[in-house]
User: Fold this.
Amino acid sequence: MSRHLTQLLARLQLQSAVLVTVVQAQGSVPRDAGAWMAVFADCVVNTVGGGHLEQDAIAEARAMLAHVDAPPQTLRFALGPRLGQCCGGVVHLQLEVIRAADSAALQTRLRQTGPAVALFGGGHVGHALVRVLGDLPFAVQWIDSRDAIFPGELPPNVVCEQSEPVQSAVAHLPAQARVLIMSFSHAEDLDIVAACLLRQRAHGDLRFIGLIGSQTKWATFRKRLQARGFTDAELAQVTSPIGVPGIPGKAPEVIAVAVAAQLLQLGD
Assistant:
């Protein structure tokens, strides 16, 4: 589950809310269909785009909260001068009262499903990257060969796996996974890359293979992988260094942002 869905379900055990969902979006709009927010009497969880659109939607939702038996309604908002916005699009919002009894259905309906990311390595960059990805639409599988390396608290979209040898986990990754390789050991990194390339040779179903490190590291890896029988065409499937180019800085948090941006550029 996403962090926002976790917050919604927890608060819903204490009080009712109005769920506001973008059911239709036309033209230039701040959020696409499926975006949602939950309006409680004293707080709002998540967003449907901000600005006057969201302010008006919150006001309508709070009015509904005064009538807990109010039926669902759909409102049309043109993002023009009346709302003080110049996007020019049209948004249709559905408003419905939700209660604790609706939790199971909401968990299924609003569960954030996104591209699979396999993150190999529980070092400083791995920890920073998990924190960044925790608020993004990815399903993260965090893998390391070491036991007890993972923190006690994790974002809802992250699951951990201890794998020894670590590269054996590659065979079980979901199709179209984005693989990020940043273990504590260059030897492990090399074995993970090789396992990914063997899977690509057999199935060709990994969306991205990214290796952390310098150009010098990748040059060394290329020679060792060529010695293992991998061709130039196969090696071209590996992106190294990883991260959006042009972002200066080597702090783990900076690298994490650059890598997360690169994942988002891949799309679905």
Notes: The mean pLDDT is 91. The chain is about 35% helix and 20% strand. Residues 71 and 122 are 48 Å apart (CA to CA). The helical segments are 3-12, 51-65, 103-110, 124-133, 186-202, 215-227, 232-235, 252-266.
